[in-house]
Amino acid sequence: MSGNTGAHDVIAIGCGPFNLGLAALASTVDDLDLVVLDERPEFTWHRGMMFGDASMQVNFLADLVTLVAPWHPLSFLAYLHDKDRLYTFTVRENFFPSRREYEDYLRWAAARLTSLCFSHRVDEVDWNADEERFTVRVVRGDGTVVRMAARHLVVGIGTAPHLPEALAGLPADRILHTADYLYRTDDVARAGRVTVVGSGQSGAEVAVDLLTRNLDGGPAVGWLTRTGSWAPLDYTKMNLELTTPAYMRYFHSLPEDVRDRLTREQWQFYKGISTDTLEEIHELLYRRQLAPDLADVELRFGVAVESAAVDAGGRTVLGCRHLDTGRPFEHVTDLVVAATGYRARPPAFLTPVDKLIRRDARGRPVVRADHSVELADGVTGRIFVANAELHAYGVSTPNLDIGAVRNAAILNAITGKETYRLPRRSAFTRFEAPPGPA
Q1: pTM of the prediction?
Q2: 315-332 pLDDT, tens per residue?
Q3: Which end of the chain is more exposed for a tag (fewer CB within 10 A), N or C?
Q4: How confident is the model at residue 2 (pLDDT cuts 50, 70, 90)?
Q5: Do 198 and 341 form a contact (C-beta atoms < 8 A)?
Q6: Angle CA 391–393–395, to nearest 5
């Protein structure tokens, strides 16, 4: 869509899976004018990590709509039916789509929505108290500036690749983030040694690719991570109850310091490695034993990388510390792949309304139960956030399987009624403390 000017009920900023799902659910709501703005020219999703055999970590029911609207015409099953793959998907008996297939589904849904405006970069947002609307300054791809207005905003700009300070000083030709890995495979192939710093699923998938290359006579491989083991994702069924809407409501009700403690303790839900990937890594390492004269492989956990520089001889040298013993050592490599995760990116376009946003003791926006941030008295519009409320809702916040529920809650708040029925029971566990004595 080329873009809408004028006033709308809702402007959603950023078109990742979460705001795409919001647009999908909104498309079947009568009398709701919602537009989604994104600065990119088209919808894409994690292209830099789109390995051919990479699988989703959530099943197909965690699509844009199904968990609140299984009848919806933009469900994953509707996509399979439209592509004439529903029967073969059933016979496949694997309910976890490949990452490529899931992106194809997202692009299929995006092509069917008229509310998406690509090549529209939001430059500035302000609150107009007289008109009781947010004003939005937008720069189109051709450089023209348009102004829009909306009663409510939904900010879903996603997260940005994070480079820790210890690695940030390396020249661009010596380091890449996992987000860009498949764009830099020529650099990987030219290197004599490639070292992954960090772990998680992305780091492990890069390690699989590097070990496969190593078996074919490719570069030496290093893998260094702070974690105290090659920790698996904790996706056991009862522990997955901590990712349900029921637990998210409970988590939101807790004091700030308790929420912060739990988020630190529950890191394995989103920083671990799938058991399938760990088994694949072990199999590749086992096969190396049968192949002579391969380049070296060095795997170490419990290691902190504290500095990185290019020395006088042109080598990339990582200053490391063995955490169990405190012993420092150097690791020499040619190219570093930073598997160091993502961080929320502060939306600069919200600077004019920053003074209206209420914050907690650590400076984070206070997020209400409906996923809107608390604003100053007198502001009648609402700013909702998607995947920016980890501190308020816990480790499920970035999960795709919570997207439809969060979007339904947002649309219910905007329309002032139960437009979509939210799950009333999503966990067997009772999280709240039982009543005290009478």
Answers
A1: 0.93
A2: 999 999 999 999 999 999
A3: C
A4: very low
A5: yes
A6: 80
**Residue 162 CB burial class (10 angstroms; 0-12, 13-18, ≥19):** middle
DSSP assignment string, 244-277: SHHHHHHHHTS-HHHHHHHHHHTTHHHHSB-HHH
Task: Give the C-alpha separation, 161 to 179, whole Å.
Answer: 7
Bridge partners for 135 per DSSP: 126, 149
Tokens representing residue 205 in the block? 């998938």
Between β-strands 297-301 and 303-310, what pairing exists: parallel, antiparallel or unpaired? unpaired
Condensed to tens digits (0 to 9), the pLDDT of residues 396-436 reads 898 899 999 999 999 999 999 999 999 999 999 999 999 88
- Give which of 347, 423, 424 is closest to 384, Cα–Cα: 347
Dihedral in degrees, nearest 10, Cα atoms 117, 118, 119, 120: 40
Looking at the DSSP bridge assignments, the partners of residue 119 are none
Distant-in-sequence contacts of 26-34, Cβ < 8 A, 24+ apart = 26/115, 26/411, 27/74, 27/113, 27/115, 28/69, 28/72, 28/73, 29/411, 29/415, 29/419, 32/411, 32/414, 32/415, 33/8, 33/9, 34/8, 34/9, 34/10, 34/115
